[in-house]
Amino acid sequence: MKTFLPNAQESLDNRKWHVVDASGVVLGRLASRVAMIIRGKHRPTYTPHLDTGDFVVVINAEKVVLTGNKELAKEFMTYSGWKGGEKFESVEHRRARKPELLIEHAVKGMLPKGRLGRSLNTKLKVYKGDKHPHAAQVPAKLEIKKK
Q1: Annotated domain spans of the chain
Q2: CATH level 3 topology of 16-66+98-132
């Protein structure tokens, strides 16, 4: 018996769209579940070196929950490359400024690094509020356990 190996065209034909409501969901649980679906690990045809996953639309990004004291204590660091170019931003400030980045950053860290990870990251769509422009794709609702 030979091992089944899907080709790129088969994985392109079988892609689905999922929509996730992030209100009241813990960020880590949301990110790990979304990364698993984007990667394609929920399918029997999963192949580590191919993109066999689905698209995921996350709505209500501003209502995601962090456990413990992370809302105030956790910081995101960016570096411009210049001397003294480090900037730190708390979760509270980032949520007020651009809440989509919280989920995008968490999911990106759970995807593989390199060419495959960068292409998988394009299948994540995150929106503030409950409206999204992907209604034509008829996304299926995906339930994630709330806090």
Answers
A1: 16-66+98-132
A2: Ribosomal Protein L13p; Chain: A; (3.90.1180)
User: Distance of CA 55 to CAs 61, 74, 77, 109, 138, Å?
Assistant: 16, 29, 28, 17, 11
* CA 89 to chain centroid: 20
Q: Would you give the DSSP letter of residue 45?
A: T
Strands (E), the chain: 17-21, 55-59, 75-79, 86-90, 124-126, 140-142
What are the pLDDT digits (tens) for 103-147? 999 999 999 999 999 999 999 999 999 999 999 999 999 999 887
pTM of the predicted model as reported, rounded to 2 decimal places:
0.91
CB contact at 8 A, 57 and 18:
yes
Q: What are phi and psi of 20, to 5 degrees?
A: -125, 130
